[in-house]
Design goal:
Elements (H helix, E strand, L loop, with lengths): L1 H5 L6 H29 L8 H26 L4 E4 L3 E2 L9 E8 L1 H6 L5 E8 L2 E8 L6 E5 L4 E3 L2 E2 L12 E4 L5 H14 L5 E3 L4 H10 L4 E5 L3 H13 L3 E3 L15 E5 L1 H13 L6
Parallel strand pairs: 1-3, 9-10, 9-11
Antiparallel strand pairs: 1-2, 3-4, 4-5, 5-6, 6-7, 7-8, 11-13, 12-13
Helix pairs in contact: 2-3, 6-7
Keywords: Hydrolase, Magnesium, Metal-binding
GO molecular function: hydrolase activity
Family: Belongs to the inositol monophosphatase superfamily.
Length: about 280
Amino acid sequence: MDDVLDSVPGSEPPALEKIAVEIARETAALALAVRDRVVGDLSVADLATKSSATDVVTAGDRECEALVRERLAELRPQDAVLGEEEGGDDEPEPGRLRWVVDPIDGTVNYTHGLPWFSVSLGVEVDGRALAGAVVEPVSGRVWSAAAGHGARLDARPLRASALDRPGIAVVGTGLAYDPARRERQAALIARVASSIGDIRRQGCASLDLCSVAAGWIDGFFEHGLKPWDWCAGALIAEEAGAVVRRPTGPGVPDDGWGAEATFAAGPALAGPLAELLRGAGAAGL
């Protein structure tokens, strides 16, 4: 693997982290500008409709992903790209780096004026995460990591929670758009709620994973996330010392989670929390 990275100058994880931060910051500024512009063009009547909210998201997502692709074409033309809006390389050839972009993670928050949304940009090779950045447009906070070099919030090192008891842990989760899966997720939350200290549902998976990295929450789980939701955030949590479980591919043996589960928790909490969730039927989500 190191031979692959050494063959392309500038492919060392810290150098890739720097690129991810640079592009995500630029894109975060665009996300705010697009929202302000599109909302400003809507009438009061328009703002009450579902279609107007969709217009804000569509404009923001498309313009932001286009900017990321443009900048990557300038800086890393040899790499593959997978984005939420335009798709791309699902399975790049072995040894080729792939950037995974969520131009706006937390789109419901984005359209409703809530500040908890992000631009998420990660890079991987052969399924191994190398670097990533998650930038909050409203606060300007920058979360980032490079494989083997730790994780940072605005250049300050991050460390996951040392808590070891689910009964006092604050745990983040999310709910899918699909009504049937949402119902199953809500039922799981109900089954474990009395065994967990508290639950948070913040609406932005990348920032939930970053929150695990910072110890702001002690753990996180969700089923149905896509690579662009977790690529950067999962590495940031992992480099902060969290135990991370990403969704698995075809042919991977069942581990009691189901293929589409994302999980992260501080190292002392990970075992007890995972046991609690799996015992409550997490694999059925």
